[in-house]
Write a structure and sequence with these properties.
Shape of chain A: globular
Helix content of chain A: 25-40%
Radius of gyration of chain A: 20 Å
Oligomer: homodimer
Strand order of the largest sheet of chain A: 1-3-2-4-6-5-10-11-9-7-8
CATH topology of chain A: Amidase signature (AS) enzymes
Structural class of chain A: alpha/beta
Number of strands of chain A: 11
Number of helices of chain A: 14
Order of helices and strands of chain A: HHEHEHEHEHEEHEHEHHHHEHEEH
CATH superfamily of chain A: Amidase signature (AS) domain
Strand content of chain A: 5-15%
CATH class of chain A: Alpha Beta
Number of domains of chain A: 1
Chain lengths: ~425, ~425
């Protein structure tokens, strides 16, 4: 087995044992990138010498952090001190912020090798699409906006990569590419140094190829409860609620099948799996997410609107001009509805260990323009709850279709333990 | 009258008429700074040539923006492309972010002259104090954390300055220095490019010497409703609720007098002024603000904690280590209580035009170490509502003591109109 094929957890173990060096792992990943990048185009910036230099420093370091020697891809709207950050925007071509975003700085402090910058939708929001292809089918999108990070991990180029989620930008691409991903509880990991879209929604997320790998960044970022590292419960002790949710009619057959398959596999493995209908306030929660996202986008892109009008994609100019005509009372209602639904959802726990729900409407669409619909992600982002994407089966075109599990706010550590227990059961391709 | 003595509104009018140039106003402010800075120490970075150069560019520009020719002081935790940003932290001495924060970029686009960087508490949060003195009494604090911005405006050095508020960092210093200030609704002005402390709370704010001046940045930042610019209501049509609030027992006599005086003056001027008792959920709202601020501080200072441990003030290390032992359930309860109180408060409007409430517990304390207590500000910051500080009278030591008015979320434009109507009535020093 080549080092690039190891899960992050297996690689970390070998790095701690001394049977693998950060340099060897980084070189192996660079080799894999050289093979796959012409087809996948996950990276917009990659400097092999820079990555190897970092790996050598890590190998010389005394301590071994939570991400010791891990090559990590960084979505190109997150600032990096030693690489450009372009936001896939003509305004920021060649832009060098000269400073690491908090999540990058923390990762370096924990021993990570910052591998390169991965392609993204313009400002992780809309406008220009990433050039990245789905590693499973070059003619299809990996999803967006964290296109390059999802594809890089799924293609084996890096064991971990960071994305962000404001609507469905982390979890949906994981479903499309057959990767695992985590969007933690909102507001715990600092968003310092990444381009803001909506402060109520913007959340960092990360990709991996095994459920246990998702705990590595969670530990580095000190998510709530990670210091106790809850042990995985036996499957028979797990109580899972299957939530079709207010957008179920939008699910294609392959997404419906994924949810049913995942539920069946869990039941057969001994878990208590029951359907759960969300109460009526949830019917409007998807619209509330859009209202808040667009309203906060007004302020987020105002500087670019004023200073670089012609270079700012029309979608963002429309946002700043409030073309959809959102009124202040709509925004108040959206915030208040979100608060009510957060309370209602949390009240379901601890009778439950997790909610099981779709992660995308179906397989990855053909072409790179349509990044897929975030309708199964937006509400959870607004609810601020932790979400973990788990691969499940393949659709009619042979493309991956996943599901996601959701926990209560700040229940990240327990949800990671659930993912570790049920990931191998749900994921048909696992083992 | 020297140009530096003009209110921002009067200066803007003269700049639009062509009877004043940005360069002349900037030079006049620089003269005032030269006179007062040795005693006040508001600025940590000031380059006269850089300011004059900007002013000359503004004078040559074709259009005239909302802040045309306005010299503005910027709190030194807000990034500026052409000046250092030190956060008053040993970690960031000489740090040059090389990029403007969104609020600075927007202000430049609207014609502002970025005058210099004003002193702040370390990371606008705690630790090291600003060196700034209260312009009214060198032996006293101007308040914090926006110490330099409040003092610079109160001392006539600049007509406008930007601060931030996470607890009471904008409104309290205004009260201590006898200035006007506005903390707008949370989340409308982008926080991109300033050091985060608590994303739920961090809000930009600004200082001025007249209530109408507060509308200038509000217009530049496109606060909700500013495009319609609501006309001031006649005083007799205003309905004001006097709220002592859950922390009234903490108010010193001078703050109690300020609230009573302000209410009496409004009544005599014809406004309908009635006391209002907040319902019981508000009793815990101040504690909820502390819980959220400290919890979000864990992530905000984690990068500095890991990379610059010894240079990070012990207060921040304690925050990252969660020394106060906040549990996830406390944080959930705090968020849910805040959401409930936001809804309850908003329901009081539109039966009301504004809430009138204390802005500080009393006069500015002696010494630069004690920056004053944010107890009359923290709850409003958490409630996300717009707040405007209005000077009122002088306490037993001759120091200014103000009040504040509060509106519903996104009711910034209407609250500015109220401030314009009632500011001259409440402010004994006005006219």
């Amino acid at each position: 087995m080549e080092p690039f094929e190891l899960t992050a957890t297996a690689a970390l173990r070998a790095l701690h044992d001394g049977t693998l060096t950060a340099e060897a792992l980084t070189r192996s990943c660079l080799g894999r990138i050289a093979d796959r990048e012409p087809a996948v185009r996950a990276f917009v910036f990659l400097d092999a010498a820079l990555a190897i230099g970092q790996a050598r420093e890590v190998d010389k370091a005394c301590g071994k952090g939570a991400l010791h020697g891990m090559p990590i891809g960084i979505k190109d709207m997150i600032d990096t001190a030693d690489m450009p950050t372009t936001h896939n925007s003509p305004i920021y071509q060649g832009h060098r912020p000269g400073q690491d975003a908090a999540c990058v700085a923390i990762s370096r402090a924990e021993g990570a090798v910052i591998m390169g910058k991965t392609d993204t939708l313009e400002f992780a929001a809309g406008g220009r699409r990433a050039r990245t292809s789905n590693p499973e089918d070059e003619t299809r999108t990996p999803g967006g906006s964290s296109s390059g990070s999802a594809a890089a991990v799924a293609a084996g180029m890096v064991p971990l990569a960071y994305g962000t989620q404001t609507g469905g930008s982390t979890i949906r691409p994981a479903s499309f590419c057959g990767a695992y991903a985590m969007k933690p509880t909102h507001g715990v990991v600092s968003t310092q140094g990444f381009k803001r879209y909506s402060h109520t929604l913007d959340t960092i997320g990360w990709y991996a190829r095994a459920p246990e790998d998702l705990a590595l960044p969670a530990r580095a970022f000190r998510l709530w409860g990670m210091e106790e590292a809850p042990a995985p419960k036996p499957l028979a002790a797990l109580r899972i609620a299957v939530v079709e949710g207010p957008n179920w009619t939008r699910a294609e057959d392959s997404a419906r099948q994924a949810l049913h398959l995942a539920a069946d596999r869990l039941r057969r493995a001994g878990a208590r799996v029951e359907p759960l209908a969300l109460p009526p306030p949830f019917d409007s929660i998807t619209a509330a997410q859009r209202t808040i996202m667009r309203s906060e986008g007004r302020g987020a892109f105002l500087a670019e609107y004023l200073l670089h009008h012609a270079k700012l994609h029309a979608e963002f100019r429309d946002t700043v001009e409030n073309k959809t005509g959102i009124a202040a009372r709509d925004l108040v209602a959206a915030h208040d509805l979100a608060a009510e639904c957060r309370r209602l959802l949390d009240a379901l726990f601890p009778e439950l260990d997790a909610v099981l729900t779709p992660s995308a409407i179906g397989e990855a669409p053909v072409g790179l323009q349509n990044n897929g619909d975030p309708v199964f992600n937006a509400m959870w982002t607004l609810l601020h709850v932790p979400c973990i994407a788990i691969p499940c089966h393949r659709g009619p075109n042979g493309m991956p279709v996943g599901v996601q599990i959701v926990g209560p706010r700040y229940g990240d550590a327990a949800l990671l333990a659930v993912a570790q227990a049920i990931g191998p059961v749900i994921d048909a391709g696992a083992g």
